[in-house]
Amino acid sequence: MSEKIWLSSPHMGGGEQKYIKEAFDTNWVAPLGPNVNEFENTLQTYLKGNSYVAALSSGTAAIHLALVQLGVSGGDEVLCQSFTFSASANPILYQGATPVFIDSELETWNMCPELLENAILNRLKNGKKPKAIIVVHLYGMPYNVTKIHELSLKYEIPIIEDSAEALGSEFGGEKCGAFGDFSILSFNGNKIITTSGGGALITKSKVKKEEAIFFATQAKDKAPHYEHSKIGYNYRMSNIIAGIGRGQLEVLDDRVLARRSNFKFYKKEIKNKKFTFLDEPEGSFTNRWLTCILTPSFEIREKVRLSLENENIESRPLWKPMHLQPLFKKYLNFTNGTSQKLFEVGLCLPSGSNITEKELYRIVGVLNRF
Ligand SMILES: *Cc1c(COP(=O)(O)O)cnc(C)c1O
Predict the structure, then answer these.
(1) In this chain, where does the modification N6-(pyridoxal phosphate)lysine occur (predicted)?
(2) Which of 48, 125, 147, 191 is catalytic?
């Protein structure tokens, strides 16, 4: 059996162990310390703009805290992109709030601005002003920032920008992760860089960042003893994990280049023109976290996936939209069929930044048999 090719596996840069060793040597083996501060500062500089970063235990925790900080609670409605990973939507339920799902546009595969406006108008007519919009740069492709943020301003509904898959992507020359009222990143094992597990919440002020850290460290009020007047969470990133993050940030630009060059390779070497790709719209720069192809039909998608599996190559269907998930299908949704179609015919190809050219040839070899 040929060696397994993974969809997207961790890729260490070399500097990580130095920072972890420093943490051990100085006994900063705690959920705070110099690695956490440096990791946050480096990310802030990287994102530019008005970004204040709080390092957390996961991207999911970051979305949850964004909802907490926006005051989302029981009975509130939150608009959420349907075409995404369930972690974008689950925190809405943690807060006892109600998701309303919005389908995608073909240009970016992300939230369709027209459907978003329809949904807002519909909810306003029903006397339910949505508390937030959760919008995603899926697979690293920026959503239509101009149009979505215009609607957010027009109707005064804040945006939670889910950049879990989009660190290194840009829209209009600015980094994804710097656009939302709150933005989130993920450093889970399969993301563009990883700390083995981790995330970040990005806010627009120092006060909001401090509030995020307050909630992430059990919401301790100022007192010599432990005093609590709010619900707290144990969501802070540890100083060990942040050491991995510091090493990973040193190689982030290389990782983006490697993923983009995977995409270019696939686009050039896959000869069957019935397999298509999503191109970058004008003004967008994607990290190409995962290269996705669209096939002519569900049946062909499955044939391709199983042929790859036979050759010990991992691939994965595109995300199944939330409005089709057993957990979420009872909630209101505004759909146009786009995400369902993408789910049926789309496939993510191995896209790790550590994939070799030989492996890429093995993969296209299978695809070119179709
Ligand atoms: C990975 C991911 C998350 C969650 O991040 P974790 O760090 O795994 O909790 C959220 N949204 C999207 C779109 C993701 O891909």
Answers:
(1) 191
(2) 191
How far does the centroid of ligand 1 lie from the alpha carbon of residue 186, in Å? 6
Range of the domain at 64: 16-249
From the alpha carbon of 87, which atom of ligand 1 is closest?
A: 10
Separation of alpha carbons 115 and 95, rounded Å: 25
Whose CA is closest to atom 6 on ligand 1? Answer: 59
Q: Is the dihedral of CA 45, 46, 52, 53 positive or negative?
A: negative
Distance 187 CA to ligand 1 centre (A): 8
Decide if 8 is inside a domain: no
Q: Do 262 and 239 fall into the same domain? A: no
- Domain shared by 110 and 52, yes or no: yes
What pLDDT does 30 receive?
76
Q: Could you tell me whether strands 174-175 and 170-171 are parallel, antiparallel, or unpaired per DSSP bridges?
A: antiparallel
pLDDT at 49: 77
Number of domains, the chain? 2
Query: 369, 307 in Cβ contact below 8 A?
Result: yes
Ligand 1 centroid–CA 240 distance in Å is 21
Q: CA-CA distance, 106 to 273, in Å (whole number)?
A: 19
CA distance 346 to 298: 8
Q: Cβ(188) to ligand 1 under 6 A? A: yes
pLDDT for the residue 179:
98
On average, the pLDDT of the chain sits at 97
314 domain-assigned: yes
Residues of the chain with pLDDT under 50: none
Instruction: Tell me the two tokens of residue 348.
Output: 């993510």
